[in-house]
Amino acid sequence: MRFTSLTSSDGVTEQFFTLDDVPGVLWTPQAAGPSPLILLGHGGGQHKTAPGVVARARRYAAAGFAVVAIDAPNHGDRPKDEEFGRIAAGLRGGGDPGALVAAMHAHLAGQAVAEWRAVLTAVRRLDEVGDGPAGYCGLSMGCGLGIPLIAAEPRIGAAVLGLLGADGLAGEAAQVKVPVRFLLQWDDRLVPRERGLALFDALGTSDKTLHANPGGHGDVPAFEVDDEARFFARHLARSRANGSSAKR
Amino acid sequence: MRFTSLTSSDGVTEQFFTLDDVPGVLWTPQAAGPSPLILLGHGGGQHKTAPGVVARARRYAAAGFAVVAIDAPNHGDRPKDEEFGRIAAGLRGGGDPGALVAAMHAHLAGQAVAEWRAVLTAVRRLDEVGDGPAGYCGLSMGCGLGIPLIAAEPRIGAAVLGLLGADGLAGEAAQVKVPVRFLLQWDDRLVPRERGLALFDALGTSDKTLHANPGGHGDVPAFEVDDEARFFARHLARSRANGSSAKR
């Protein structure tokens, strides 16, 4: 793990890094002990410092969490492969979006899960990151890559997911056994309402809450982000190191 | 309005009263100025001091709200009429529950709405109750009687509703224009999931959030009640009198 830059503002330290070929960012609360960790997965076509990712990261860090985001395969600063280009062209060409989005996530998931697990191992070695259960937050593609990650990764203890339908995911969703907050946008033109409800239904955990709000795919209200920080605080509290309870 | 008893415990004062023929209870935070008001409607077959009502009232009062609950017509300490008995017998006899519940609420709503409006007027005259917008919280029958109340009553500024289907309510639900938190239980045997989703969909406000949790009709998680207090605090803040911001 190689850190390439460090800046601090508003009580939050932001460090860019690479781990093998994967570029990432780590946000940590300044002047805190080891903080519980949240992994932040971006949406399709976005990257590790997309505005919505940075806004969540800074909000979580202000609430006392260490937060890490990486560029997903074929996204951000990373090269694109042929198969990715083929599926992306299909999406632009107006094919069945549910099936094409599922094919895209299936194409990326194997590599993405392995990369997240390596990042998790590396980041937990840092002094500023606690070694208790981590949180995962990912919507849309971040949900599509997050569900296989959570199904495979016992070090994740709670997740915020959503903005995605059940296509291709029901099997792995059933293996999700940690507390989940699931976001659904009631007027989402990219994700039919009943497909989103079906993915919530398919989650294997009995500790799950659906939050649905009016508006389109990108219109998740700001108050939900505040509430996510409380959700993670409730479920990751046991990972807080000594003295860190004063961090909120 | 005639008060008949007063007790205080854990920082909350509880006063029983009658207004004309309607028996009620008022909970207020001790040693506070005028507090924003929440009306609390109980479920079918319950009454103003059912355990779930009292638990919510004390939680809200601890968060700085004045809270009032009354016995609905035909409930609690009040006499039962013939039509009520006829519909209740139909429900016990296994008729179509959606239609019978809607008939029950329609039978009670006219009287219940008039009574709530009179209580609202009387309670707002008290020194310990603020005169800003009030909140309304009612689930199941409390939702069925609350929606016509909110549609008719401009002094209500935010509401927690849910645990009910759209049967017979779509028209009045469309007239609800205040912020709404809507609770749905994912495995509710009394309210089919799609009927509950249809009532959320029918609400006329664009500021509404659905919270769905696994479990049956009576299994709303305790963390939702905490979250309701925050929801009301966010939306009724303007009704707080001077100095009351320290009340939470």
Automatic annotation (TrEMBL), chains A, B:
Gene3D superfamilies: alpha/beta hydrolase (3.40.50.1820). Keywords: Hydrolase. InterPro entries: AB_hydrolase_fold, FrsA_esterase. This is Dienelactone hydrolase family protein. It is an enzyme of class 3 (hydrolase). Belongs to the AB hydrolase superfamily. One of its GO terms (molecular function) is hydrolase activity. Its EC number is 3.1.-.-.
